[in-house]
Amino acid sequence: MSEQDPTLEKDPSDWVTGDEPATGAQKSYLETLARGTDEEVPEDLTKAEASEKIDDLKN
Predict the structure, then answer these.
(1) How far apart are CA 35 and CA 47, in angstroms?
(2) What is the pTM (predicted TM-score) of this model?
């Protein structure tokens, strides 16, 4: 049996809980990352959208 590569990440759009509202931790982290940028963080992000936005702001 072959082992799955642990460096592979599952696409947030494929998450079972991806359609649920973003967590408090995600919202807080997004606010921190967005501070000092021109980026606005929408209030109604899903978990998947928040994860993708975090990745965008980190890069």
Answers:
(1) 20
(2) 0.73
